[in-house]
Amino acid sequence: MQIKTQQYLGALVSALAIGLIAATLIQSIRQTDRAILRSNFATDIIAEGIIGLQLVAVEYIVNRPERAKLQWQLRQESLSRLLAREVFDEPEEEAILNEIRQRHQYLKETFATLVEFGGQQGGSEQELLLSQEVARRLVTQIMIMTESSVADATRLVRITDEQIVETQRRTNWLVVLLVVVIGVVIAANFASSLSQILTPIRKLKEGAKAFARSDFAYRTALTVNNELGSLSRAFDQMAERQAEVLAALEQKTALLQETNKELESFSYSVSHDLRSPLRGIDGWGLALLEDYGEQLDVTAHEYLERIRHETQRMGRLIDDLLLLARVTRSEIKHNLVDLSAVAQVVSERLQQAQSERRIEISIQPGLSDQGDAHLLEIVLTNLLDNACKFTSPRSEARIEFGLTQAEDPVSQVLRSVYFVRDNGVGFDMAHARKLFGAFQRMHGNSEFPGTGIGLATVQRIVHRHGGRIWAEAAPDQGATFYFNLSQSAPLPFAALRFPVASTKEPS
After folding, report:
1. Domain CATH code at residue 274
2. Is 354 exposed, middle or buried (0-12, 13-18, 19+ CB in 10 A)?
3. Rounded to whole angstroms, how far apart are CA atoms 435 and 470?
4. DSSP-derived secondary structure for 169-223
């Protein structure tokens, strides 16, 4: 049963039980009110009717005043009106009331006869004695009939009182029964909630804790047929898949570790076994030129120079590939790095290496960030070296490094980013997608020599720091490379208030 249906059913049963209690109480109140009404009616017959007639009859018998006759008439009419009401509906009660009504009618006639005998005057002594004897007998009948009526009315009172007690007792038992039913419903609902809701929630909570500590062997194993049961089964299926993924991941990790060992072995082989032959080729080519250069013609000299150039280029390519591999595998040590100072050292080294050129490099002071100092030096070396290389056709090269604000092309969020800008030859943005790929070049090797590994290495370092790098350029209008070292927290603009310092190396 679904939780929603279960709750609706529990609410319906509770509402029905409450409705039954309310209906029972209303019915009991009505029955009690009717019983009280009948009891009051019977009491009124005694107190206001029969007893009053009895007192008036006694007064008349003793004193025979005219006022007593009038009072009898009034009380008799009042009792007649009272007895004419239809209050009782039980046969026994109706029978008793009819007896009282008949007796009242006979009492009326008897009192009238008594009044008639009492009004006779004169006559013989024998007639007078006979009249008094008849009067006594009539008075006796009146007293007997009034006492019988009082007894019958008292029976009515007792019957109605018993009905009141019985109604109250029945009501109490019904209320107790309904309270027990409600208690059973509440207990059943609690037991159902415990087994159908609370227990699954507890097991799901334990499962979440097990997942938090990477214990993917935990299973809820619940069989309840509700939403939590479906959720528990989905949880167990997810745990099963997670365990399978974990096993596959462990297998891939072992394979990756084996691959890394092979890669390290390969790197060692490249570093030692390949470099030695290359140095040998370059060295023997140089020896050939030095020892037998006079005997070789111009074409042979050109071929030997090409051999040495390609050998040296292959050596540089091997060095760049090894650097890219080390960048990928090396552990990053996060420290506060003075990027302005690193850029200053790199720029001075580049200017000394190309002292014949006019290169102006502007470096914004006060730029610092968290990162690996060695890897960030590689980033700035590659970016500034590329700027120097691609500004070589310019009579005066202008290069800048600083902090600015630019829109991230992926997230479209305005961020504070570092930039390296130059006034070099630039490139077409239509080919920008392959800019950071290994061995991808925008210009020919004869025009601008290089291995095509530098920007791939830069991107790998920036990504390992949690940042992003992109470029904006146009043909013959220079290029600007933007990068940051974190996507979660944009860099502050505090450094923008510092003036831009420049270093200039004259040609």
Report:
1. 1.10.287
2. middle
3. 9
4. HHHHHHHHHHHHHHHHHHHHHHHHHIIIIIHHHHHHHHHHHHHHTT-TT------
With beta carbons less than 8 A apart as the criterion, state whether 343 and 401 touch.
Answer: yes
Is 411 exposed, middle or buried, given 0-12, 13-18 or 19+ CB atoms closer than 10 A? exposed
Q: pLDDT of 209-253, one tens digit each? A: 877 777 777 777 777 776 677 777 787 777 788 788 888 888 888
Separation between Cα atoms, residue 196 and residue 222, nearest integer Å? 10
Contact 426, 478 (CB under 8 A): yes
214: left (phi over 0), alpha (psi -120 to 50) or beta: left
Nearest to 219 by CA among 184, 198, 243: 243
Residue/partner pairs of 30-33 with CB below 8 Å, 24 or more apart: 31/163, 31/167, 32/164, 32/167, 32/168, 32/171
Tokens representing residue 251 in the block: 């297998």
Task: Confirm if 485 and 463 have CB atoms less than 8 A apart.
Answer: no
Residue type, 166: E
Can you list the alpha helix ranges (DSSP code H) found in 373-416? 373-390
Q: pLDDT tens-digit profile of 47-65?
A: 666 776 667 666 666 666 6
Q: What contacts 278, CB < 8 A, 6 or more positions away? A: 311, 314, 315, 318
C-alpha 412/C-alpha 483 separation (Å) is: 14
Q: Are 303 and 447 members of one domain? A: no
> Residue 167 corresponds to which tokens in the numbers above?
């109604």
Question: Same domain, yes or no, for 428 and 377?
Answer: yes
Specify the DSSP element, H or E, that contains 405. Answer: strand 397-407
Q: Is residue 376 part of a domain?
A: yes
Instruction: Estimate the crossing angle of helix 373-390 against helix 298-329, to 10 degrees.
Output: 150
What does pTM read for this prediction?
0.46
